Write the structure tokens for this entry.
Amino acid sequence: MLQIDSLVVRYGGIQAVQGISLEVQEGELVALLGPNGAGKSSTLNACVGMVKPASGRVVFEGREIQGMAPEDVVRLGLVLTPEGRRILTGLTVRENLLLAGAIRKDRKAMLADLDRLLERFPILGERAGLAAGTLSGGEAQQLAIARSLMCAPRLLLLDEPTLGLAPKVVDQVFGIVEELRTEGITVLMVEQNAVRALEIADRAYVMRTGVIVGQGTSAELGDAEGLISSYLGAGS
Ligand SMILES: Nc1ncnc2c1ncn2[C@@H]1O[C@H](COP(=O)(O)OP(=O)(O)OP(=O)(O)O)[C@@H](O)[C@H]1O
Ligand SMILES: [Mg+2]
């Protein structure tokens, strides 16, 4: 479904992604792990047109999309929930969702999705008319994911969805991610919580300083503790 081929991302003299290749099959939940600065966000951002790759190919459902404008990528069904829960704090929860869905041409279906999401995430339903800036971290992450779902993704790229959240809320977010696949949404997830990510993912790639240094199923990668000490470094 998604194929990244020899992708290179540079920022001036820094080569953040040094020719990586990876793929995600339809229906999979794949984790992309690695320490800070490994190039994980750069990889996701390059897929959705937020960053222009220096070279390499990104193929989504048979179509080359590297360098395509972000709004065109979204319309193909490849949607990124970026790092840091970027929501519009001055707008209401409902306005946040409507604005995310505004990119779609099927307005009726979009509005139906809005109602469905406000039911599915009850806290968002309760707070629909309140400013998004009043939400807690976990609630804001639910809104960030719901915003992506408003774009009718077929493949969702999640960048560190649990960063900075309390343990109970982390569980909730992992629960939501697991639910997505039962709805037929394919997921590629960057996650600093390697142990938890490997529990729910079909496969994982491990990235370090711009290259892929390991890949496979949780079992193939060995126990998560070993993976962490050998690839990810202390504190991951
Ligand atoms: N906009 C930018 N301008 C310059 N350098 C950047 C930019 N974005 C990222 N970098 C650099 O590129 C490298 C990879 O960064 P990236 O954010 O992709 O890593 P990451 O794996 O997502 O890290 P983290 O786990 O901290 O989110 C880092 O050295 C980072 O400092
Ligand atoms: Mg990152």
Notes: The longest helix spans residues 167-182.
